[in-house]
Amino acid sequence: MRASLSSSSSVLRDLPVLLVAVVWGSSFLAVQRVAEPGTVVAMLVLRFGLVLPLLGLAAWRALRKLTRAEWLGGGALGLVLSGIFLLETYGAVHTSATNAGLIISLAMVLTPLGESALGRTAPPRAFLAAAGLAVLGVALLTGDGGLHPPTLGDLLVLGAALVRSAYVLAMARTRAVRDTDMLAVTWIQLAVASAVFAVVAFAVGPAPWTVALSYGAGQWAWLLHLSLFCTLFAFFVQMWAVRATSPSRVSLLLGTEPLWAAVFGITVAGNRMGPLALLGGALVLFATEWGRRTAPAPRPARGEEEAGAAADARTGRQTRESTPA
């Protein structure tokens, strides 16, 4: 009886986390519903303009306690984050939702490679094999099952995956924010990124309020989905989940995001994939999961084991929420 209750309780704890993976998988489709190449920046201003006040209310007490160094550290990470959002969102409107969701998952393989390069250590052979398999999968996927070059959107999303990996590594090594409240540092990063978007919006495309007035009910629904579910809901579920269950279990569930992106892309967006492209997508899913399981563990510098462990734990919780599509 106790085993049954424990199993039921575990399932209930897993469901919200799995739902986060599902809504993240739908985010690429949502972006395509609310943005065009000329309105990407305006949409980003609207998206985070809706969520920042709510997140700011929750983070107010923690924000008041931050030091100047913590504000500057969070702000620097926010500048990198703005680049990720721009690359990822522009990429999503220039390629299929399926391709975007699968290509961005390469960050799970690229990040450990960067960690090994910085630490001057050779990654395990199994991990290198997974990385090679992932590259092959992307080649088949973006080549549409042939020898066609990848589209502009594919390349932009690949660039976002590379910058996201650099962002994760930078976050783990930015001492100013290692012990900073997660909610507060996330708000600073999103606020800085939003400020960048607001400045760029004056030079690129229509003003955010013009785009807002042009939206119909359906587009507002998708925008609210991006703001409230893919960002706000996802963030608070992760904060709860890492206390209610194990980080490895959370990571495993969130790792299903590219699978859901493919599901939404094929069933809702009507993405069509040839046999070789389907094989490529399957290889990306398999290789990123294999790579995540065989990735080398980060090795903190001498005297920084405890700080490094805290940073790694925080990074695992923050990374994807800070960079939704």
Please explain how this structure is put together.
- By secondary structure, this protein is mostly helical.
- 79% of the residues lie in helices and 0% in strands.
- The chain has 14 helices and no strands.
- Helix 1 (2-34) crosses helix 4 (97-104), helix 1 (2-34) packs across helix 11 and helix 7 (152-173) packs antiparallel against helix 14.
- It is globular.
Which characteristics define this entry?
mainly alpha
Q: What is the beta-strand fraction?
A: under 5%
The major beta sheet can be summarized as:
none
Q: Which regions contain 5 or more consecutive residues with pLDDT less than 50?
A: 301-322
Rg is: 19 Å
Average predicted confidence as pLDDT: 83
* Count of alpha/pi helices: 14
How is the secondary structure organized here?
Blueprint: H1 2-34, H2 40-64, H3 68-94, H4 97-104, H5 107-119, H6 125-142, H7 152-173, H8 182-201, H9 208-214, H10 217-244, H11 247-254, H12 257-267, H13 275-294, H14 305-322
Concise synopsis of the structure shown:
With 325 residues, the protein is an all-alpha fold.
